[in-house]
Amino acid sequence: MRPRAARSATRLFCCAAALALAGCGHMPVTSMVRLARVDFQTSDPAQLRAAIKLPKSLKPLPRGVALRIAVKVGRSAEEAQDFVLRELPDVGELAGEADAASRIYAYSLDDADVARLNAFRAALLERKKAGDHGSLSISVRPQACSTEEIGGAAIIFTSYLRTSETGSYVTLARDVDLRSIAPDRAVATEIPRCAS
Questions:
Q1: Residues 6 or more apart whose Cβ sits within 8 Å of residue 130
Q2: β pairing state of 156-162 and 49-55
Q3: Strand order in the sheet with 170-177
Q4: For 51-70, what is each residue's pLDDT tens digit?
């Protein structure tokens, strides 16, 4: 079980990644247009890529970044599954997004989770054939630790998604300050320090 601080940090990052998909204003309009072309029924999971931009004071935990797909069908409770993301050695086209104060991390689905996602999608399509209708949301769920004292500075987070339809990365949420998501909480103290 993760320490409480790590769970709190995870919730904050998940919120940041999901902001764009909720249409809260952090997603560029051009991203909305491009993501509207993505068809979950036919999109190739093996080509899916996710990326995050974090301040250099933060570092993703090993195997700590996941893609969450949540589905709500009819009046049933939301069903969500997390799919493990594997870090890629090269951030490719996103290299230019980093600056002196940040770093980009790029990911693909773990091979085993490509099969899991295909099975999850097949089950959902069967329900759709049966006449069930619902909604789907996708978020990037990184867990991170801090490599240095964060202090009172903004904690800026950006997330990206690339699918077989988009062909290149699309910004999900750009330059979201985690402190603005939970202004009544001491966000910096909830992020665990990285093991030395």
A1: none
A2: antiparallel
A3: 134-146, 58-73, 79-87, 102-109, 49-55, 156-162, 170-177
A4: 999 999 899 988 888 888 88
- Contact partners, residue 90, CB within 8 Å, separation at least 6: 106
Residue type, 139: S
Structure tokens belonging to residue 15: 């919120």
The two tokens of residue 195 are: 């093991």
Residues 6 or more apart in contact with residue 183 via CB below 8 angstroms: none
CA distance 85 to 106: 9
Q: Taking phi first (over 0 means left), then psi (-120 to 50 degrees means alpha), and beta for anything else, what does residue 124 get? A: alpha
In sequence order, which residues have a C-beta less than 8 Å from that of residue 145 and are 6 or more positions away? 6, 9, 58, 59, 61, 191, 192, 193, 194, 195
**Over 90: is that where the pLDDT of 107 sits?**
yes
Q: What does the DSSP assignment read for 33-51?
A: HHHTT--TTT--GGG-EEE
Name the residue with higher pLDDT: 73 or 52: 52
Q: Token pair for residue 186?
A: 């001491």
Instruction: Decide: helix, strand or coil at residue 126.
Output: helix
Q: What pLDDT, on a 0 to 100 scale, did the predictor assign at position 144?
A: 87
